[in-house]
Design a protein that fits this description.
This protein has seven helices and three strands, in the order H-E-H-E-H-E-H-H-H-H. With 121 residues, it is mainly alpha-helical. Helix 2 links the parallel strand 1 and strand 2. The protein starts with a helix and ends in a 5-residue tail after the last helix.
Length: 121
């Protein structure tokens, strides 16, 4: 990842990292996100995650984008709000609002489920 970060720095490349399955690991080795290797890497990274992928929660409208760089984060928020208004994206009914407790439970009590899906040698 250090080499990737060096190339991105040399050519002014921003990184959008698709880490939607980061909670699923096939060993005890930790998942390392590009933005964690250095402050410089964090400044150029957009880290995308989705607990719905890890826990197989189909149709739950949930994802995150972590952006360490404050200016880029604010620009992304403005763009997302503009798109949401243009598309009238918002919780459309009580069903959409009920997904949040489901995600909280999945995130807080997931260890046993993840361990049961790990392919140990």
């Amino acid at each position: 990842m250090g080499a990737l970060n060096d190339v991105c720095e040399r050519y002014g490349i921003l990184v959008i990292s698709d880490d939607i399955h980061c909670d699923i690991r096939l060993s005890d080795r930790p998942h390392i996100v590009l933005s964690c290797i250095s402050d410089d890497a964090a400044e150029k990274s957009f880290i995308c995650t989705a607990p719905t992928k890890t826990f197989n929660l189909a149709e739950v409208p949930s994802a995150t984008i972590s952006v360490a760089n404050k200016k880029r984060r604010n620009e992304l928020l403005v763009a997302m709000l503009f798109q949401a208004r243009a598309s009238e994206i918002a919780p459309r009914n009580a069903r959409d609002l009920m997904f949040w407790p489901l995600l909280l439970v999945a995130e807080s009590r997931h260890e046993a489920w993840l361990l049961s899906h790990r392919n140990e040698p």
